[in-house]
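TA notes. Do not distribute before section.
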Amino acid sequence: LYTLDSQIHQSDHESLQGFGKWIARKWQNAEARRIEGNKDVVELQESPEFLRHQWEEQVASQTKPLPRQSQTAGKKAVEEAVRLQKVRDSLVTRISRFEDIICDVDADGVDYIDAEEHLPILRKQLETCQNKLSQSKRALGVNDHASFQHLTKSKYINYRMNARALKMRLRMRLRARKFERNCIERSARRQQYNECKIQDQTEDSVKRRDPGIQKLARSYNKHVSDMLELIRRRQAPRNAVAPLPITLKGLFNLDVDDNIWEDIGLNDDDDEGPPPWLSSERVRKGIKGILLRDWSDEELRRL
C-alpha cells in the first residue's frame, strides 16, 4: 500500500511539473506573439480603434451576400427606392408630430414623455432610411427630385443594375484571389521540400478559378456595350453615362488605379476608392498585428 501510494504521489508530482512547464511555455509563446503583434501596430502609427474598425469593415464586406443578376433587377431596384421614399416620408411626418407636441406648452404630460422617448429613435431611423435611399438613388442614377416610376420598365436601368451586380461580384472574386495568392506566397517561403506538392495543388486550385473570373469580366463588358448602344439610340435616361469597360489584360494585378474600382455610370456621386484594409499593405499588416495582440491578451488572461 505504501509503495502504491508513493507511486501515485510521484505520478501526481510529475504531472503537475509537466503541466507547469506547459503553462510556462504557453505563456512565453503568447508573450512573444503579443510583442510581435504590438510592433506592427506601433509601426503603423494608427489607433487600435481604427484598425479594429477596418477589420470589422473587412469582415462585413467579405461575408455579405453578393447581388445577383436578374431580368427584373431594374424594376426591383426602383420598387425598393419607392418603398424607402414612402418610409422616409412617414418618418418625417411622425417626427414633425412629436416635435409639435414637445413645443406645445399645453400638451398632455403622457404625450410629452412619449414624444421625448420616441424622437431619438425615429431620428435615428430617419437617418438610416435617408442613407439607404441616397444609395438607391445613386445606384439608379437619379437625382433627389426625380421620379422613379418612369424607370420601372427601363432596359437601361436593368442593364445598369445587372452590371453593378456583376462588378461587385467580380471585385469580391478578385479580392479573394488576391488574399489566397498572398497566403500561398507566404507559406511557400516557410514550407519544406516534402510539402511543395501540397503548395502546388493549392496554387492550381486558385488558377482553376481564373476562367470564371474572366467570364464575369466579359459579361460585364457585354452589359456596358448594351448600355452604350441604348445611349446611342437615345433609349436611356437623360444625361446617362455608361460605365467604363474592364480591360482583361492585367485584370488579376488588382492595382489601386485600375478601372475595376471606378463606378462611373454605376454609382453616381460615389468617388470612394478601394478601402484601406484592401489597398494599403501597411493597414493589412496593422490589422494582423492588432488581431494577434488581442488574441495573445485573451490567451494570457486565460492562463
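Switch to the second chain here.
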Amino acid sequence: PTLNPADSGYGWKDHGIVVQTDEHSDHNAIDPAIVRTPSGELWMVYGSYWTGIKLFRLDPVTGKRISPDAPTYSLARKEQIEAASIYYHDGYYYLFVNWGHCCRGVRSTYNIRVGRSRAITGPYLDRDGVDLLEGGGTLLLDSEGSAIGPGHAAFFPRDGQELLSYHFYSAEDNGRAKLGVRRLSWDEQGWPLAGELVTTGSIVEPTRRD
C-alpha cells in the first residue's frame, strides 16, 4: 500500500487493534505518538488521566506491540494529563505532556509540560528533579495573550531549524481552534524553550469524503 494518490496501490489497510482500553481500564488508550530512537527502535507513547502516560515498543513490520508479553511502561501521572510526545535531543529523551482541560474553547486550561530522561523508558524528571510519575513537569508553554490552552506538542525540522507545533484556542476569533508553530531552542542546561511564533494556521472548514 502507498499513500501516493497517483499510485494504483493507494489506500489504507486495517491491520487491527494496536492497543485498547475500556471502562474498567486504569488509563485511556488515546493520543498515540510514535518515536524512533537513535538505534532505530520504534516506540509508542499514549494515554490520559488516571494512571497516566504509557509506553511500549513496536514491531516496525506490523506496527503493533513487538511481542504479546512486551512490557508497558508508566512514564507520567497527573489528575489531568494527556497528549504525550517524546523528542530526542543531545543524549536525552524529552517527554512532553499536557496538563489541564482541553477542548473548551477560551475556557480551556491546557498547558504543556516537560521532563527528560537518558532512557526512553524513564524515569522522566523535571528541571527541579521531580519525577513526572510524582507530579513533576516543567512548564514549556501556557496560555499567552489571545492564544488559550496550548496543547499536543509535536516537532519537525525545517531549513535547519527545530520547530514546535501545537493547537490553541483563539480569544480573538470566538474561541476557534488554530495551529501555532514556534521555533524550538535550548537553554544552557539543555531544557527546551518555546521561542518566537513563526506562524498560526488559518481556519480550514471540516469536510467529509465518503
